[in-house]
Known about the structure:
Oligomer: homodimer
Radius of gyration of chain A: 23 Å
Number of helices of chain A: 9
Structural class of chain A: alpha/beta
Strand content of chain A: 25-35%
Amino acid sequence: MSELVTAAMIVIGDEILSGRTKDKNIGHLADMLTAVGIDLKEVRIVPDEEDEIVAAVNALRARYTYLFTTGGIGPTHDDITADSISKAFGLVCDYDAKAYAMMEKHYEARGMEFTQARKRMARMPVGATHIDNPISLAPGFKIGNVHVMAGVPSIFQAMLDNVLPTLKTGARMLSATVHCPLGEGTIGGPLGEIQKAHPDTIIGSYPKYAEGSFYTELVVRARDAELLETVRAEVAAMVERLITEAA
Amino acid sequence: MSELVTAAMIVIGDEILSGRTKDKNIGHLADMLTAVGIDLKEVRIVPDEEDEIVAAVNALRARYTYLFTTGGIGPTHDDITADSISKAFGLVCDYDAKAYAMMEKHYEARGMEFTQARKRMARMPVGATHIDNPISLAPGFKIGNVHVMAGVPSIFQAMLDNVLPTLKTGARMLSATVHCPLGEGTIGGPLGEIQKAHPDTIIGSYPKYAEGSFYTELVVRARDAELLETVRAEVAAMVERLITEAA
Lengths: 247, 247
């Protein structure tokens, strides 16, 4: 059986906490990690404050196989992610020679000044490796098990596409959904019994509300296809039985 | 000057971490708290695991004026929020007499069985007070500074509408936006100088990318209207100057 591979995410930015910007990266990362068999176990959204970022990075990088961050790697004064990650690792944050040269050339070719602000984007912890940014050039970086990426969704997604093939992946969690026209209050008891009988599966129950009434999506998750089918069939039979009883 | 009022949020649910459900509650809570002058300082998304929920609740309720949770208060086996909150407070989790009676009557009036699963929704820490649920009856609850609400967005929003008038609110953070057609690389340096000169404001710079080029939204935040206008004017003048220089 494959090893369990886990991950956490830190979303960095006052603009998410104020509601001004609505995060679009959590759901995308969750989808992509689930697809390759990595379990996202925790997400934290923290403000643009160094102590908060350092504390979250050190708490999460120690607990999970991978940590992903988004936000705070632009050229302005409120972009403090590179400094904060460096501090979390006890490393110096400095201009990365390769990133600096690449960006200098890029701006020169466009007749644009390579300002102090733009130079900030070439800073990273000493020893970090690049995460390519095909959209706006300034790279993200990887240090230890931490992947530092942009907050702008299109850039984050492009960076993540570059990162995913480099990750160790786990046995993919498979899932099967059983639609249930009954509310959770009706199915909760018997569903709990099925969960208890199959501890190697995760059975989720998601209430939905539409047109004035509740229905439920029952999702069985397991890493083993045969087990998944066995439990899915039990859940489907339970729903059929309860529908008959309710009729 | 008004007191600073802070808050944190915990989103509870495997379905958010797997990507199956995309959270809609974080942005809503952020908007509502900002509107009444409460600073949302941290959000955590945690799985349906008691130890994780207890640890997050105890870490955050101690640090902030208020803590809000969403998710995990339904009738099925994976709804463990009431038990976890009780454990975090060292309180017994039991049927609440008022909630039990109200729900019993509700189901009886509809000719529906008050199942064991439905009864689970009447459980809360001893001493908790109700948060009314005008949509599907089963209440959320408040214990200490922790407000426990539903994960289904329509129910969460209705519960929050009941909670907001009960909260101590702070001086509202005001904001003013300056549109900037230049990228962050051009404005980063001078903008940082303005921020340094006005430590009682928060100046955010949000890169946007549309139709192949970057522009920037510069947002000044302050609790004092006069200060806000002073700094907004400085930022606007800076943008004008840089546009002229670039032309």
